[in-house]
Design brief:
Length: 287
Amino acid sequence: MGNRTTRSVGYNISTKAVGSYQRHVLDSDYKYQEGTEKEREAWQNAFNFSDRPEYLASFLDCEEEGKDINIDITLGPENPQNGKQFCFHVNVRNISNEDLSVDVNSVLYSHFYHGKKHKFVTQDVQNNQLIKAKSGESFKVDVPFAMYNEKIADDQMSMKISSVVRINKTQKSFCDTLDFQMTNPSSVEIVFDRERGTIYEPMNATISFRNPLPKSLSDVHITIEGPGLVMPSTQKLNGEIPPHGKASITAEITPTRSGTKTLIVDIDTAEQKDFKGSADIYVGYNF
């Protein structure tokens, strides 16, 4: 076994908070606090009555002795933006008492939202790297936009890094992975022509889109919708939006319900889909 992950399941159980877009944490509603006696009892009870193959029990008894390498993968920046260069660091630490010669093999590929691999992006191989006892080394891999531009699988823009470190003397291997998503920077801006809406009175919303990518975008479709504000509708823009260029449209909106309402904008292009934006406005009555 190259790696055992103990903090991947049952953490950050959450849902959308009522009345806001914040994350509402539900961990304590579903399980005892991690590491407590009651949590360990609940886990053991579930395992005892599961139909898992018996051989899995042997993995639970693995001791930390014999583990020589720790691996940690980090991103720079922490949240890579689609359209910009990013990098990742494979940090390898020798926790043994002797110097080690290792091979480090790291692969980046895109995958679909359900986890299936899509396309290979890049690979970095470092052979015969000497890591001193109780010390570490970091291996940096740069990923320019041109390298992943045509490799994104779907609108989730999911990526995965897999790193394997092999000790040359013992041929023992250790591995780690990191899943992440490329983000679209906030490129959609929505401005209403008044601070407050009124039921059944038309108002205008100006929607501006700045192309965040270093390439032109074509076949641009802007879809707007908002319960209580406007029925879903789509408008196509003529021509292309050049790299980092800007385009705007004005939409007429007639609110039909009172309260704080949200206008949602989704922009799809031939080259990249799902540039999103939203804006809230309070709608009241005209007494």
